[in-house]
Amino acid sequence: MGMLFELLPVAAFFGVYKLYGIYAATLTLIILVALQCLFQWIRHGQVSTMLKITFWLVLGFGGATLILRNPQFIMWKPTILQWLLALGFIGTGLFTDKPLTQRMLGAQVRMDEIHWRRLNVAWALFLTFSGGLNLLVAYSFSEATWVNFKLFGLMGLMLLFVMAQTAYIMRVAHPEEEAEAADNDEVNGSAH
């Protein structure tokens, strides 16, 4: 349900755009992301940082689109979000002991630090690239092409990237029994 929950506003944006245009789609997006925040707050007592960022970007850029009657603002939203996320990956990679990828997946996956750092760099590069690609499509093609790209192009790229990342993780991750043995060695103070 989590993935469907996250995709609902984007899918609704696409559907409403096809029926009623960019302004109705933008209003729908704002309302659905606000409802996602409300639902998450009611269900979990808090709203995730990612959803908060998304909400404020959708509200800001979507609001500007509606007030100024200029769709360019909502077209910038995916780029700004992706570039902010890229900065998060870069920042944790440079200024903290654990890269963001390790913070997000470290409880489920055991890998050497170099692999976490490589994944972190890969995410930063991917998000920077896809944010730039969004702008290229927004400014080089029609509004309808951009809407299609937003749903199918960006989602498709993300899916391919996650599949490649998963293959990489499966290749370099420590098997579960090795991870448990390493944990036991750390507790006992011995090393391999």
UniProtKB/TrEMBL annotation:
Keywords: Cell inner membrane, Cell membrane, Membrane, Transmembrane, Transmembrane helix. One of its GO terms (cellular component) is plasma membrane. Pfam families: IspA. It is found in: Cell inner membrane. It is a multi-pass membrane protein. The keyword Transferase does not apply. Its main location: membrane. The chain crosses the membrane at residues 20-42, 49-68, 80-100, 121-139, 151-170. Plays a role in cell envelope biogenesis, maintenance of cell envelope integrity and membrane homeostasis. Belongs to the YciB family. This is Inner membrane-spanning protein YciB. The gene is yciB.
